[in-house]
User: Fold this.
Amino acid sequence: MAILNTAITGLNAFRSQLTTTSNNIANVNTEGYSKQVVDLSTLPETKFGDSYLGNGVKVDQVRRQFDQFLVDRVRLYTASSEENQIYLERALRVDDIIADPDVGLSGAMQSFFNSVQDVADNPTSTATRDVMLSSANILENRFRSVYEFLEGMRTEINQNINVLVDEANTIAQSIAELNYAIKIATGSSNGNSPNELLDRRDKLITDLSELVSVTTVQNADGSVNVFIGTGQGLVIDDRAYSLSTSINQAEPDRLNITLESGGGLNTDITNFLSGGKLGGYFRFRENILDPTQNAIGRLAIGLGTAFNDQNKLGMDLNGLLGLDMFNVPDPVNGTDIYSTSVILSDPNNTGSISVTDWNIAELSTLDYELTYQGIDSWQLYERQTGNISTLTSIGGVLEFGGTLPGSPMMTFDVSTAQLNDKYIIRPTRQAARAFEVELTTGRQIAAASPVGVLENFTGFSTVDNNIDAADFTVNAFTVSDLTVNVNGAGAVPVVNGTYDVNSLITAINSAAGSNVAAPDGSGGINVTGPAGGIVFAGGDAATLGIGSVAATVVDNSITSADFSLSAFSVSDLSIDLGAGAGAQIVNPGLYTAAELITEINNAVGLIIASDDGLG
Assistant:
């Protein structure tokens, strides 16, 4: 009987091996299946006399042929491969659009510069000017189309991130459920492993590694903890924590990923994620998409500014000085959405900052995050490089960027910033979208030098038959030796000082002891402009009076230095170049000195006046 029992143990053991082998064969193409082997050991011996007789064989366990180290390597390489694949595919799409001469920038820019050369060769031809303007409009459209293509990729990335986050949550929940089932199965089988459950869980973890890099920690009860990124717990024991997407409130076009952290709170883990498809999208966004948009924007700003500056140096076919050729963002003075989007403020900020200056030659393709740490200390984070530095503001002014000492890329007024305020600085992101042609006709292209020649030219004159007080905005009179004489009673000095019109009238009346001057002109302070300078009407002495009171105001040293002029009101000014040229009318209006000089030059079509006194 003992012999039969021993034989039966052998048959049972070999039957287990045959069953396992057949199962292995049946699942040879099953994804995630691990080959199983049967571990055998001898049964306890029986003492027979002075000897021990064997009692056969037993099955210890059916286990998987499984190497955790190799599996971890596979997951690591899977995450890396998926990340690089996503990165490569999107980078090639950007390369295709940028390099394509038919839809990219290179062809349009080459055509534009060719047309510029044609105008330089034949500046009087309206046809070549119209071609140049048409090429400029094509370049504008090309900048916009490339910008919109990149924005479309940004939208696509955000949509894919949403899909991948939902997929990751589904996998995480399944892993948590399998953790629970494995714990129950292991506890009910004297510690033996439920191989098929383990295979299913391992496959899910490998699937998760296609989405984001993962690491695992084995627990004693058979469950595993799954971590993503740099150690953010996604599955702990039999609990799965949910991922979600959120719109960056400061940057509505930027999608972030948050992780449930308990208590209904979510933590932004975007900057901690890497690997897998999610890592590929984030890496592409940071290293290709954002810098490319910034680089194209910088190109639009540089190109537009250079042509604007050059066009304003010349004269167009209408005989007028050149205007801006292109519209480009101006974060210092601009009010359009593209100019104001250079600075994005965190919704929780209680203060604000503004751009006071920027150096176009120093613009970079980076995005920045500024955080105020208090006591004039700022933290600057460069998104694309990851570099972090500390800056110090001086007198409410903050400078950063630039490659040369004393030549910062941007200067900010930070006088109203508050502790922990956060700002995102994107100097060139929207510039390509804002790039527009400002000229409406080819005649406005200023291809001629602002120089003219007149035969027998002997000089020019400005004519205004009505220069009076209305032509000037007078801010102040500097009085040092003014006297007033009422009805021959003797000269009384007016208190020395700096006055506006009303306060000077008050001072004169105070010295006179009666109202001899009035601001409505009835008492009569007027201003005129003879060759000797700006003086009171009637020369250095003015006779004032109201009713029966007569007074004489005397100042032997009233000159143009006694006045601060901020604006000229022009209504009948004309320019005559002589030699039969005739008077050219200056457009009526209110001008500063610089604006009046420009209007005079435009009226005659030559540079004859300047703000350095040479004109």
The CA atoms of residues 248 and 254 lie 6 Å apart. The radius of gyration is 42 Å. The chain is about 35% helix and 25% strand. The longest strand covers residues 57-64.
